[in-house]
User: What shape does this take?
Amino acid sequence: MDIKDLRGDDGSFSEDKINELVGKFTEIKGENENLNTKVSQFDQQKSTIINDTRNSLLNIGEGVQLVTENLKDGDPLDDSFAALAQSLALVKMFMTRWHLHLTN
Assistant: This one.
C-alpha cells in the first residue's frame, strides 16, 4: 500500500482507509505474537526433551558403571559392559554438544 492509497477521491486522507491499514497492522501484530508464543513453546519442549534424554542417558551410564565395577576380572560380561560404557560416554558427549548447539 502506498501513501496515496490512503487518500480519498478529493485528495484528503481517508479515515476509512487509514483504519483499514491500522486493522491490517493489528492483524499482523497478532499473528506475530502468536508465532512468537509457538516458538517459545517449541523451545521449551525441545529443552525438556533434551534434558530428559540427557538425564536418562546419565542414569543408564551410572547403572552400567555400577555393574562394570562389580564384575570380576575375566568375567565374559566385563568386555561387553566396558564397550557399552564407552558407547554411552560417546552418546553423552554428543548430547552435551547438541544441547550446547541448540541453546546457543
Remarks:
- The chain has two helices and no strands.
